[in-house]
Amino acid sequence: MRADVLALGLAATVSLVAAGPCDIYASGGTPCVAAHSTTRALFSAFSGSLYQVRRGSDSATLNIGPLSAGGVANAASQDSFCTGTTCLITTIFDQTGRGNHLTQAPPGGFSGPAANGFDNLASATGAPVTLNGQKAYGVFISPGTGYRNNAASGTAKGDAPQGMYAVLDGTHFNGGCCFDFGNAETSSRDTGNGHMEAIYFGTESTWGTGSGSGPWIMADLENGLFSGANPKQNTADQSISSRFVTAVVKGEPNQWSIRGGNAASGALSTFYSGVRPSVSGYNPMSKEGAIILGIGGDNSNGAQGTFYEGVMTSGYPSDATENSVQANIVAAKYATTSLTSGTAAFTVGSSISLRATTACCTTRFIAHTGATVNTQVVSLSSATALKQQASWIMRTGLCTLGGIKYFRFDCLSMLGMYIGCPMPKMSENGDSYRFREHGKVVYISRESKLNIFGRRG
Question: What pTM value is reported for the model?
Fold first, then answer.
């Protein structure tokens, strides 16, 4: 009798774990052959490592898994491990068991900015979000950053059918080539039309566009970003305006589709479904089966974007299967959260210093020399005047946009003078603002725009 009760209890516990995206694809007959996410498990039973971080202080690494099988990533373990130092994402593990892990992209047709021509790794804290109220981190891709696997197993080759989806930040993009996720060349070089089939997101318009000014979900099929059969424009491919976006591309012999929607609410829309582009080399396709994230097939690395989760399937998923996956994504309740991590926080009235996190430059702080905001080497033994130039008082912003609160940075050495761009503000809810330095002058990056800091009274 007691054994029967125990068995029933275990069965009830298992049934409470909702099917993940890859469970849904498998039920539809198109199983995942690659599944990557730094935010959550994509199978209901997955409890392994989602990604690995490496901290700057001692190069130690830590694998981050979900809080429970099928659950959200254990961001607290990352925060604890990375306290007082910087961390980079070294590996995004494949959850399918095929070993299709994504690691630092090697040089190809284009070289990256890291040692030996490799691309940069992403900061582990650049894209904080919450899923059902639980904190997690996405993959914040800056230009020059990229991940790849040129020896993937089970991915589509030639004209074989495949499906893909990715959940992305709809406000983080640019017109560079190419923020992709999907199937690419195994040589990291352009080997011709039709040798790729990957999701693209951004405003690159050299080859073609959708309607409006973008950003658009398009397909990178190599030597072209396509929004439909017409290589120049498909007006049904709408510009994206949601903070979180679900992007879908799928293809089979002389048939492919682009679909998309708000990853936080609602259903998917079909932006294109039909024959292959009317350009030589794309019918039949010649897919090679490598996997890329944040870059083009030839390692073009001028794009930017943020990736939260994505999969590649064997077979051409039905719209019904993808609609069920979209419902699962919406149920995950992606939401923005503070840009700060660990125990740090922005508190109005507090005095803070802002230190560079790039490995080369962690002794430098945002400071100013007259009207120019820059970075300077500052330490506890520095002159009082220099330390004041590198200290800022948090103030409330001059405006509220869309219900979002903003901060301003008041210069401690020249009270009443602020850094701004041109309306001085820093979002506390995860809006995509980043500090950057070029030529010893500090800039602020918001979404796809770069603006120089100024001083305002």
Answer: 0.77
